Amino acid sequence: MYLRVLGSAAGGGFPQWNCNCPRCKGLRDGSLRARARTQSSIAVSANGLDWLLINASPDILQQIRDNPVLQPERAQRDSGIAAVLLMDAQIDHVTGLLMLRERQTPLPLLATREVLSDIGTGFPITSILSHYCGVQPHVLVCDGYPLGVPGLPGLELSAVPLDSKPPPYSPFRGSPRQGDNIGVVLSNPTNGRKIFYAPGLGQMTPQLHALMAGCEVVLVDGTFWCADEMQRLGLSSKTAFDMGHLPQSGAGGMLEHLARLPAGVRKVLIHINNTNPILDEDSPERAELTAAGVELAHDGMEILF
Ligand code: MLT
Ligand code: MN
Ligand code: ZN
Fold first, then answer.
1. 242 Cβ partners below 8 Å, 6+ apart?
2. Which of 64, 109, 151, 256 is spaced 20 to 30 Å from 43 by Cα?
3. Closest Cα to atom 9 of ligand 1
């Protein structure tokens, strides 16, 4: 089974178009040792030809250019993207659906009822797409049972509800519902290996910890290093928690939780905001991450499982 990271940054990407923070500026002017990153998306495949796109980012066309496995090969109109699965209805995870409108058949789209309702009304992508290729919705239920993906034999997944936040445009931003944000366990049924993917994870729970402990790899929320990161930079009045993300550092932070996982579990942070100091390869925060045995996902990273 193949997993490919298409975009490892949070919303805005790195560098962000309008951001002149020390990191975005440093990457642009070459004074910072760091990699550019596109917005949050991964793809998985059992046969290396047909892929499940997990999140459709605003950078999807660039990501398809950068990843030839997703490009047309077998027919006049074709794509390696066989279906799309959404983790939430945030702009960085759904906007790319509009870029897939030239498909000749409805796009198979797996998402919870809550996410499908947000992208049918508040940000009416599926209504708009109905005038183009249309979507074939598959409602995901977070019951922990493994399910197959239509058209993608050999891949099994199960959806896990997460405490986080629906997007700012959602009428439920202030009163999140189960199903607004999910994580996914991707399994290879032939060898039992599992990967847990959760780019928006606001809170750890004992159940989540147990689930992560049973995976070969966890690819989890790397948005913010500290809770008041945006506030300190004067970029927002909101904390990481207000935005539905568990910061890495500090008591109860992501690094503490990752340290309690069994030694064999590979730990990778993904969905990294452009304000996060870990992007700077020479920063003390990056050194702390490395010392803790935690990796940083990068665009083009491939994981076999
Ligand atoms: C988030 O997950 O909070 C987003 O990256 C926000 C956004 O896309 O603007
Ligand atoms: Mn996001
Ligand atoms: Zn920046």
1. 165
2. 256
3. 11
Atom 7 (ligand 1) nearest CA: 11
Pocket probe mutation, ligand 1, options 40, 90, 164, max atoms within 8 Å of Cβ: 90
Full 3-state SS string of the chain: CEEEEEECECCCCECCCCCCCHHHHHHHHCCCCCCCECECEEEEECCCCCEEEECCCCCHHHHHHHCHHHCCCCCCCCCCEEEEECCCCCHHHHHHHHHHCCCCCCEEEEEEHHHHHHCCCCCCHHHHHCCCCCEEEEEECCCCCCEEECCEEEEEEEEEECCCCCCCCCCCCCCCCCCCCEEEEEECCCCCCEEEEECCCCCCCHHHHHHHHCCCEEEEECCCCCCCHHHHCCCCCCCCCCCCCCCCCCCCCHHHHHHCCCCCCEEEEECECCCCHHHCCCCHHHHHHHHCCEEECCCCCEEEC
Report residues whose beta carbon is within 6 angstroms of any ligand 1 atom.
10-11, 90-92, 200, 243
Domains identified in the chain, total number: 1
Instruction: Read off the tokens for 14.
Output: 């790195």
Domain harbouring 205, CATH code = 3.60.15.10
Q: What would the pLDDT profile of 251-281 be if each residue is shown by its tens digit? A: 999 999 999 999 999 999 999 999 999 999 9
Q: How many CA atoms lie within 13 A of 254 on its CB side?
A: 31
- Which domain does 197 fall in, by range? 2-304
State how far the Cα of 189 lies from the Cα of 181, in Å rounded to an integer: 25
Residue 101, pLDDT > 90, answer yes
